[in-house]
Structures are given as C-alpha cells and as structure tokens.
Specification:
The complex is a heterodimer of chains A (about 250) and B (about 325). Chain A is mainly alpha-helical and about 250 residues long. Chain A contains 11 helices and no strands. The mean pLDDT of chain A is about 95. The mean pLDDT of chain B is about 95. Classes of the chains: A mainly alpha (about 250), B mainly alpha (about 325). At the A-B interface, α1, α2, α3, α6 and α7 of A face α3, α4, α12 and α13 of B.
Chain lengths: ~250, ~325
C-alpha cells in the first residue's frame, strides 16, 4: 500500500492545484476589474500552497520527485483532488459558489491541521489559514451579494448551488487514509467537521436567500483517485502540455 | 509605450506671451517643475489630452492581460505559473490606478470602458500580436515591458500629479516584469535546441512590433510638441526607440540570439546602434483594426463585459438593499 502520509499530502496539494488552475482560467475576463485582481490573488495563493503540499509530498515519498514532477507528470488516476474542484468554471456564479463551498471546508480543515503532530504540516496550515480566511470572507460575501441581488443573479446562484451540492459530501468522507492520519494526530477526521460546515452554510444561504438541496447524495472517487470526472483529463492535457511535449527541458 | 498617437489640440504650442494670465500661470508652474493637481485650473486641451493618454494606457494594461493570460494555464512549472499570475495581477492593478487617475479629470471608468469596447479608444498596438509559444512570455516581459519602461520612467516626472504618482508604483512593478521576462529568455536560450529555437522565433516576431510601440517619428508633430510643453510627454518617440535599441541589443547578444535586422550595427560616431525602421504600414494596419489579434482581443473584452453584466447588476442591487435596510433601521 502507498504510504498514507504521501497519499494524504497529494490530496491536499492536488485540491489546491486543481482549484488554483481552474481559477487562473479566469485571467483577464472577469466581470469587473476588482474581480480580475481578486481571482488572480486567490489562484496565486492556491498555487503557492500547492508548492508546499506537493513539495512535502515529494520529500515524504523519497523517490526524488519534487512538486513540479508531481504536478506535471502524473495522469488522471494518480490525482487525489476532490471532485468539487475539478468541476468546470461555468459562469462567474458557479465559480464563486464552488469557491465558497471549498473555502468553507478548507478553512475549518486547515484550522484543524494547525495543531498537527507533524510540524511541517502545521506550518503549512498556519500560513494557509491566513490566506484562506480572506478567500472565505470574499466568497461568502459574493454568494450573499449575488444570491440576494437581482432575480437573474438569484436564479444563477441557485442553479450553481444545485449543480455543485452533490460534490459537497466527498469533503467529509472518512476513509483509511484519513483514519491513519487521525490516529497519528496528523489531521482531523473530516466527518467531524460537517456539523460546523452545515451551520455556516445554512447561515450564509439564508442571508443569500438560497435554498439548500434536499438530496444529500454525494459523488465520490476524487480524493481516492478511484473515479474522477471527465473534466480533469482535459484540464491536465492543457496544464501539463509543455512538460510532456518537451521531456527533459527545464523552464 | 502603452499610449500611442495621442492627438492634442493640433494648434501648435503657444508662447507665454500669447497666453491669458491663467494659462500663463499654469504653464509657468509646469516649466518650473511643479505638479498640476485635480482641483487646479487647467486648459481644456490638457485635460482632454491626459484623459486620452491615461485612458489608453489603462486600456493597454487591461487588454495586455489577454496575451499573457493565454499562457497561464500552460505555464510549465508551478513557479512560472505563480510568477505569471502575479504579473497579470499587477497589470490589472495598474489598470485600476490609471482609471482612478483618469477619473480625477472628470470621466468615469465606465465611460472609458465603453469607449474601449466600442473601439473608439485604442490600446497599445503590441497587444494585437499573438503569443504562440512559452518563449513569447519571455519576449513580452523582456521586450514589451522593456519598451514600456523606457516611456514610463520619465513619466514619473510628468506634470499631472495623480498620473506621476501612479507611474512611480507602476515602474517598480514593471521592472520586476522585465526581469522575469529576461529570466525566461535565459532559461530558453541556454536550454535544449528546441527551446533555443523558440527563443529566437519569439525575438524574430516581437522585435519590430516592440519598436513600433514608440510610435512613428514625431520630431515634426505639433501634437507631440504640445504634449512635451505640457510635460505629459517627456521625450520624442525616436529618442526613446534609440534608447531601447541601445539597451536591448547587448542583452540579445548575451542571450546568444540574433536581432532580426541585417542593418543593425554599432555606429562609433553617434555612439548608438543604427537599425532598420519597422514597417509603418503594418503599424497603421494594426491601429486600424487589422492586426493579427485585434478582433479576438476586442471580442474577449466585450464578452467578459457582457457576460459580467448580471454580476455587476446583482452586486449593485444587493448593496442598494443593504443601504435601504440600514436606513430603515436608523
């Protein structure tokens, strides 16, 4: 079996990588200049976090792979990101709803990691918490503003929520890797974070005048790598293209 | 240079004796190196000219995100991706300060945006060229930002206070952009054979368009003479172009790349490089809308603006609701 710590670090780094990449697809075409800046800033933070998570994953693995080798030379089945983050951007509303759902989980999870028995993980989490606090503040405000905006913005945000909600559950699934982490006091058990997430989600949705879907069905297979969506492969074919087309070159 | 072919009143520069007292005091302040601030009196021509110049510069920053954004999703390493994101984010920030500086002259960002989207206002010709390989990210930083800096460093001393102050910050960031561009070129030029070819190809394609950024010779232009008298233009186009060539040729040599100009040679007598002029017909074609990417660039900006309408309207509607709820509570 693969070292659970390596698996675990890939999960963290792949989620920030894939979401950072998705957000960077917005470059230069946001609805307003301030959003261009904020989206680039969010993408930049997430790519920075990726360098730390995947850098540590490479060290833990001990086979000479660095963060770039992991990001650019693995294929779909080796990626361990949450399914939520590989979903295409859609309109700005869907992008910000995806961000809000992820940020809500991400911040409480990172706060749990700040007390990790692994010092390097605790340090990465501590740095990330500062950035993600701002991400969540901004995505919360945007979801509220657009949910409780015009009829059209409300409809689009409700559509976004309905479309993405089936990908929420995976963030709180506990499997053998999580259990191994919890047993060593490296990371919190994701399932324990769900009540606080739901409380925050309910409060925000109420202010945003949005309705939480009744069906709690959850797609899964992203963080285990068992079954990604078709979207990830297309994203990787673009992201990894230069490294794959010119093997051995340094950039 | 991010503002090209800016037309002033076209009436020639007045002497101090020909001016009314108010205008004379204004001109004397500029001559003495003083700054004009938003609430000060200024000739209508100065105001209009600055709006066009600052507006065009702002638009260039905004449209300039597109050719680089074209490579963010294909950046070859995490570090390169982060650097490129930071650079494009800076450019959006530059656009923001410049629109704010223009707003002090009595236009709104929305007015300027509408003029950009309708094609009434221009942005720098350079952003109508495509970025085809990763080496273009190097060439854009090295040559395009390098040419922009040539123009922008003197503009830190321009007579209009808000513009000069915006330029101080912009110049700091632009010099980082140029260094990162040159760093990409170094990697490519010292890399594999394919990378060296890519680097040379990028230089071949961006050399003349970069020289065009300074605009055609304006030694005889009344527009430029007026702008220089007002200190909203500090050097002639030819002076800046020469300075750019003199600075860039040794950098190309250091990279082991060849500048695509058979007439390029060092002139002992003048102490400058002799070089070929770019094809000015091509330049005017690009300005008219016939550059390789004019249509795509404007299409992308219009699409972003149109598709973002519901977001802007939604956020404004929410803000209005919050305000009235707050008023009702008071």
């Amino acid at each position: 079996m693969t070292d659970p710590l390596f698996e675990y670090l890939c999960r963290m780094g792949d989620s920030t990588l894939v979401l950072g990449h998705r957000v960077s697809e917005w470059c230069g075409v946001a609805p307003v200049l301030e959003e261009d800046i904020a989206l680039a800033n969010t993408a930049l933070d997430l790519i920075g976090q990726t360098q730390l998570w995947l850098g540590l994953a490479g060290e833990v693995e001990g086979k000479g792979r660095d963060a770039d080798a992991l990001a650019f030379h693995r294929d779909v089945w080796e990626f361990r990101n949450l399914l939520l983050v590989e979903q295409p951007n859609g309109d700005f509303g869907r992008t910000m709803m995806r961000q809000f759902l992820f940020d809500s989980w991400h911040l409480s999870y990172l706060k749990g990691l700040a007390g990790s028995s692994n010092d390097q993980i605790a340090a990465i989490a501590e740095k990330s918490v500062k950035e993600v606090t701002y991400h969540l503040e901004r995505s919360t405000d945007t979801v509220i503003g657009l949910g409780d905006g015009t009829e059209e913005s409300h409809r689009r945000m409700q559509d976004a929520l309905d479309r993405l909600y089936p990908y929420v559950g995976e963030m709180f699934l506990t499997d053998a890797v999580d259990t191994a982490m919890t047993e060593q006091n490296i990371a919190p058990d994701p399932a324990t974070l769900r009540p606080a997430f739901d409380a925050h989600l309910d409060a925000v949705l109420q202010e945003a005048t949005l309705t939480k879907p009744q069906d709690n069905f959850a797609h899964k297979g992203g963080k285990t790598g068992a079954r990604h969506t078709e979207h990830l492969g297309h994203m990787l074919s673009q992201m990894q293209w230069l490294q794959r087309a010119y093997p051995g070159a340094t950039w | 240079m991010y503002a090209q072919m800016i037309k002033s009143t076209g009436q020639g520069v007045k002497s101090l004796d020909e001016m009314e007292p108010q205008e004379r005091a204004f001109q004397e302040r500029i001559d003495a190196g003083g700054k004009i601030e938003p609430k000060d009196w200024m000739p209508e021509g100065y105001r209009k000219n600055l709006i066009r110049q600052i507006g065009q510069h702002a638009h260039s920053e905004i449209v300039g995100q597109l050719p680089e954004g074209n490579w963010i999703t294909r950046a070859p390493t995490l570090e390169r991706k982060a650097i490129l994101l930071a650079k494009v984010q800076d450019e959006a920030g530059h656009g923001l300060y410049l629109y704010c500086a223009a707003e002090t002259l009595g236009v709104t960002r929305d007015d300027l945006t509408r003029d950009l989207l309708s094609g009434k206002m221009k942005y720098s010709s350079i952003f109508n060229y495509p970025t085809l390989t990763w080496a273009d990210m190097g060439a854009v930083g090295w040559l395009v930002d390098g040419a922009a800096i040539m123009n922008q460093v003197p503009l830190q001393r321009t007579s209009y206070g808000p513009y000069a102050r915006a330029m101080v910050r912009i110049c700091k960031e632009e010099s980082f952009h140029q260094r990162q561009g040159y760093d990409i070129m170094m990697k490519m030029a010292n890399g594999t054979e394919a990378q060296r070819k890519m680097a040379q190809d990028a230089l071949n394609r961006f050399w003349y368009p970069s020289l065009m950024m300074f605009g055609p010779s304006d030694a005889e232009s009344v527009h430029s003479a007026q702008s220089m008298a007002w200190k909203i233009k500090m050097n002639t186009n030819d002076e800046l172009r020469q300075k750019f060539v003199d600075q860039t040729v040794p950098q190309a040599e250091y990279l082991g790349l060849t500048v695509p100009d058979e007439n390029l040679k060092w002139n002992e007598e003048t102490g400058h490089y002799d070089f070929s002029e770019p094809d000015w017909n091509e330049f005017f074609d690009v300005l008219k809308g016939n550059g390789p990417c004019n249509t795509e660039r404007l299409e992308a900006r219009n699409k972003a603006w149109d598709e973002g309408r519901w977001v802007r309207e939604g956020l404004l509607a929410h803000a209005a609701k919050k305000r009235s709820a707050k008023l009702a509570a008071e």
